[in-house]
Amino acid sequence: MSEREVLELLRENARYSAEDIARMTDLEESEVEAAIEELEAAGVIRGYRAVVDWDALEEETVRAEVELNVELDRETGYDDIAQRLVRFPEVTALRLVSGDYDFDMEIEGDSIREVSQFISEKVAPVPEITQTVTHYVMTSYKEQGIELGDGEEDDRLSFSP
Asked: Per the database record, which ranges form the HTH asnC-type domain (predicted)?
């Protein structure tokens, strides 16, 4: 049995039942259930979440991508900084990245003011953080591999002779 097959199907739709996955993989339902339990116990599967199209709601949700540059010293490493930042509930994702900055952080809040205050009062004062650059998300077209929107878009490329 391929654990990867089970993982890919759960990633495609976390609401698939063990029975559904067994049917799609030609495995026994009990094998699928055991595999999922093992993957959860090992920490490979960390949780199940809905992909939300925030633009489809009436209420405002503000999301931002924040670039962080840091300066390390002998006592502080990337993991130390990351452990401080991931504890904030406003932080929905944090990644160490290569390129022009060190961390890519995703933040959610109820307003631009709330997100701005969080960055200026909680993130920027961290001694090792030397620079923040905030990009507010205006529209999302795809999240976690799922296209968003009303699905009415014409996906054909225009053609002119």
From this structure: 1-79
